Amino acid sequence: MKIDRTDKAILELLQRDATLSVGQVAEKVNISKTACWRRMQQLEKQGVIEKRVALLNAEQVGLPLTVYISVCTNQHNAGWAQNFQRVTQNIPEILEVHRMSGDLDYMIKAVVSDMKGYDRLYKKLIDADLSDVSASFVMEEMKHTTELPLDQL
Amino acid sequence: MKIDRTDKAILELLQRDATLSVGQVAEKVNISKTACWRRMQQLEKQGVIEKRVALLNAEQVGLPLTVYISVCTNQHNAGWAQNFQRVTQNIPEILEVHRMSGDLDYMIKAVVSDMKGYDRLYKKLIDADLSDVSASFVMEEMKHTTELPLDQL
DNA sequence: TCTAATAAGGAATTATATTCCTGAATTGAT
DNA sequence: ATCAATTCAGGAATATAATTCCTTATTAGA
Question: pTM score, two decimals?
Answer without folding.
Answer: 0.93
